[in-house]
Amino acid sequence: MTPVRRLRLTGAPARxxxxxxxxxxxxxxxxxxxxxxxxxxxxxxxxxxxRGDRVVLLRTLDPEGTHVGLVVDTAAGKPELRIxxxxxxxxxALVHSAQQGxxxxxxxxxxxxxxxxxxxxxxxxxxxxxxxxxxxxxxxHTYRTIFQNAGRQIEKRYSPAGLIEFWITxxxxxxxxxxxxxxxxxxxxxxxxxxxxxxxx
Length: 201
Prior knowledge:
Helix content is 15%, strand content 45%. By secondary structure, it is mostly beta strands. It has a four-stranded antiparallel sheet with strand order 1-2-3-4. The relative contact order is 0.13.
């Protein structure tokens, strides 16, 4: 089998993606400034960011704006996803954080299990691997990871029911000396309350 060409899950090169994230952040901050210094997001950023931190992504995670997702390139050099819950007029509490790779790629809100509620799909990159994590909000205002995996290439596809499937291609290490590198693709789809490994069609 020929080597697999690496593709980013988002389909966007790093620089344009970063530029889009920066533009989105500027739009959020511009809107915040136009509403005055009482904007709670400004308070959150002021209390959260440390010297050397760089904001990569900032977005609300629900229509009410009570949960905010923030991705920061930390001074230590590793990106971190932070999820905050609004507790008062200007107060946010950190309820979840994750660091999965050397570079952040994308964050999307999608109903992966068909229950009518969006989950958070986060993609990262580290070394020669792509990483994906699906984070689900719980009824008690907590967040838990319901799927996490990595591979040489990750494709996000949709089942006939409209649910997300992850097609993950990885090296098998089954090749013998002198043979080309061997790769195989495993499909993960949501069934009976969890992601399960299935045979590729």
